[in-house]
């Protein structure tokens, strides 16, 4: 019998402890040469604008690209519907409706409160003026990432952002996959630009002759996109710095081994650096999952990628009970957490750190990627301990409202001066004093 790609390990064994320790130390490191390359791209876009975009696009995407092709024309978008399966349009619309309903519940409201002394305090919530969405080309345009369009555009639209632009690299012929165009149109994106990688991020953040700068940039991408977002954060708001995909599954004997294996592979096929972990209370289940991984792996279109991922970052551990599994999951803070146990709701209160939690055998991670409604842009590399899924709030900002009455001012004046004085801020103190009409 051939050796399985992963072996089940006892979590308390030396090899099990070593594997888990390595998992906790995972980091998304940026090679210095890539950071230097991205810095040069940013400088060039800032100084040369459209000329730089044209040069990079010709070099890396479309040799015959011209400046007139930079923005997708309305007729291109309309014609895209002729090349898209009506069933796919139906699925897009169903996903859009679910995503809209979920994100609509996230929308905060402005509020005001009054005190007896006449003070009015509050918070005013407003959307940013413009948002830029980035969508990778997807294997040269042959695998359009339509779900990324929906997951980024819908919360921006619900937040009330007036101008939403989308950037995606063109194919070698200068076109954008019609499925991406249709997804953007259905999601309400009217401004679509054919540009990719770090130069697209720089153009949206800094602006060019053709592209007016935006306030927030969201969307996934390769390491060049990620580094550009990191370097430009502060000049522009960003959604997050995302690393490779992750899934951690907690399973007991009630789980179906083939489903567990399939769900692990659903993340492993993303990237050789993706992470797929199983924590099981059952020795027999863990062994069966390892066998299933080997069987199912050989049937995948992206089996080479998934194999590299499992060998580098896959782990199957047998734990003594579900409480320990939950503790370990919290230490990992995974992007995706599946609870494939007999009573998943009983385990939910014990989970504190996870990007998204999937409960039960009929809630596999892919339903969250495409159709359920919650956003699939999630924190990775353990950042779920302090950050959250992409949501409406990324595209909103809050302004505090302060309105003091004369009575309230005189009541608080001395306290303000006291605090300003100990900080050595005499101008602050004087701002109050002159209103008290002191000599």
Compact description:
This protein is of the alpha/beta class and 439 residues long. It contains 17 helices and 14 strands.
State the main characteristics.
439 residues, alpha/beta, Rossmann fold, 3 domains
Radius of gyration: 26 Å
Largest sheet: 6 strands, parallel
Structural category: alpha/beta
The CATH level-2 architecture of the largest domain is identified as: 3-Layer(aba) Sandwich
CATH topology of the largest domain: Rossmann fold
Outline: globular
How many domains make up the 3D coordinates?
3
Number of strands: 14
Strand content bin? 15-25%
Explain what you see.
This protein has 439 residues and is an alpha/beta fold. The protein has three domains: 8-28 and 243-372, Rossmann fold (3-Layer(aba) Sandwich); 32-238, Nitrogenase molybdenum iron protein domain (Rossmann fold, 3-Layer(aba) Sandwich); 404-436, no CATH class. Helices cover 44% and strands 16% of the residues. The protein is built from 17 helices and 14 strands. The N and C termini lie far apart (95 Å).
């Amino acid at each position: 019998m051939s050796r399985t790609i992963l072996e089940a390990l006892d979590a308390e064994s030396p090899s099990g402890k070593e594997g888990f320790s390595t998992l906790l130390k995972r980091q998304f490191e940026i090679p210095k040469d890539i950071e230097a390359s991205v810095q040069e791209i940013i400088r060039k876009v800032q100084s040369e604008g459209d000329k730089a975009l044209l040069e990079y696009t010709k070099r890396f995407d479309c040799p015959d690209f011209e400046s007139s092709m930079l923005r997708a024309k309305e007729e291109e978008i309309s014609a895209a519907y002729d090349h898209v399966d009506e069933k796919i349009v139906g699925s897009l619309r169903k996903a859009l409706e679910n995503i809209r309903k979920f994100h609509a519940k996230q929308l905060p409201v402005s509020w005001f409160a009054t005190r007896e002394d006449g003070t009015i305090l509050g918070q005013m919530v407003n959307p940013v003026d413009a948002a830029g969405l980035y969508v990778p080309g997807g294997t040269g345009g042959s695998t359009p990432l339509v779900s990324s369009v929906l997951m980024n555009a819908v919360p921006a639209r619900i937040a009330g952002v007036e101008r939403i632009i989308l950037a995606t690299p063109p194919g070698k012929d200068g076109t954008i996959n019609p499925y991406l165009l249709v997804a953007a149109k259905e999601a309400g994106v009217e401004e679509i630009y054919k540009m990719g990688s770090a130069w697209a991020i720089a153009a949206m953040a800094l602006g060019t002759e053709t592209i007016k700068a935006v306030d927030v940039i969201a969307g996934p991408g390769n390491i060049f996109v990620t580094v550009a977002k990191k370097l430009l954060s502060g000049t522009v708001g960003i959604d997050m710095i995302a690393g490779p995909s992750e899934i951690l599954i907690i399973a007991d004997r009630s789980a179906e081994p083939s489903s567990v294996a399939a769900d692990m592979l659903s993340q492993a096929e993303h990237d050789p650096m993706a992470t797929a972990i199983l924590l099981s209370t059952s020795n027999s289940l863990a062994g069966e999952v390892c066998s299933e991984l080997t069987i199912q792996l050989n049937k995948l279109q992206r089996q080479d990628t998934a194999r590299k991922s499992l060998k580098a970052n896959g782990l199957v551990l047998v734990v003594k009970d579900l409480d320990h599994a939950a503790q370990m999951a919290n230490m990992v803070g995974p992007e995706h957490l599946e609870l494939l146990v007999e009573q998943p709701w009983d385990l939910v209160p014990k989970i504190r750190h996870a990007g998204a939690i999937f409960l039960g055998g009929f809630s596999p991670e892919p339903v969250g990627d495409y159709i359920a409604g919650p956003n699939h842009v999630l924190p990775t590399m353990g950042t779920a301990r302090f950050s959250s899924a992409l949501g409406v709030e990324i595209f909103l900002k809050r302004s505090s409202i302060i309105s003091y009455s004369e009575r309230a001012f005189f009541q608080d004046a001395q306290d303000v001066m006291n605090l300003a004085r100990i900080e050595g801020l005499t101008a602050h103190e004087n701002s109050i004093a002159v209103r008290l009409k002191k000599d």
